Amino acid sequence: MTAVHDTAASTPAPTTSAADLLAERYGAAHAAELSGPEPGEVLRHQLAHRSVRAFRSEPVSEDAVTAIVAAAQSAPSSSNLQTWSVVVVRDREHKSRLATLAGDQEFIREAPVFLVWLVDFARLDQLAGQHGHGLDGADYVESAVQGFVDVGLAAQNGSLAAESLGLGTVFVGAIRNNPEQVADELGLPPRVVAAFGLAVGHPDPERPARIKPRLPQDAVAHPERYRSDTQLPAIGEYETTIGAFYESEGLAHSWKERVLARLGTVAGLKGRDRARESLRNLGFPLR
Ligand SMILES: Cc1cc2nc3c(=O)[nH]c(=O)nc-3n(C[C@H](O)[C@H](O)[C@H](O)COP(=O)(O)O)c2cc1C
């Protein structure tokens, strides 16, 4: 693997302080209440994350993809089962067909590489078959959960690696809008399902992405026991912080409205309410 770094828009400047990054992540008022160590390189990249949906046409090198996959494989894996795989899609037509299946999101076509991350029990099924075994444990909800957890950890490691190389990424859950057609398109055997995609490319500095604020920490981090009483006040404060972000991006709708549009009705699942049926069709009986 040769050195593959590109100084691009999403890479935090080495001088960026924790205070500046936290101010962008939480809004200045909340960030002022937080203290922490000055970030090293990894933490700076984590705090500087933003999804990138605008890419230059410049290709992503094979070496960069090798590094992303190596970082993904370096993530922890439940019982070291390594129940995931990734399909590296570069072909323009192939990418375009996948984009169509995944909500017709144009940035998938624009990104030079589209990685499709898979929960994969087919490899272990082959191993079991070779030894005259079944793979009965894989048929249970627990194994599916374990597979989705593992592939999520792996892909986020890969995404962070990409960001550290100056690349930009965005996850694509919409790849689950049409699971069976995606499986056909990728030639997936039974017991393999696409969990999400990851568009990867060089960020276009003409269309930069910004750090998106998150909920105040006291909504998500609970001392000793879960607290329900902090939730609605924290959401109220977040509406103000993220409202300013959305407004500056020219985006309508508040966070509350977005949450309710996404989860308030089944229609917000955009066809993914069939997930159990799709998983069963693809060899995950979910017992
Ligand atoms: C599993 C997963 C699926 C996602 N799917 C999509 C998607 O289909 N389209 C999209 O534009 N963004 C998608 N995103 C990106 C989120 O919208 C984004 O992470 C979130 O708004 C926070 O913004 P940030 O990543 O810039 O901080 C997805 C993110 C995750 C983690």
UniProtKB/TrEMBL annotation:
Pfam families: Nitroreductase. GO terms for molecular function: oxidoreductase activity. Residues 49-102, 103-198 form the Nitroreductase domain. The keyword NADP applies. InterPro entries: Flavin_OxRdtase_Frp, Nitroreductase, Nitroreductase-like. CDD domains: NfsA-like. Keywords: Flavoprotein, FMN, NADP, Oxidoreductase. Belongs to the flavin oxidoreductase frp family. This is Nitroreductase. It comes from Rhodococcus triatomae.
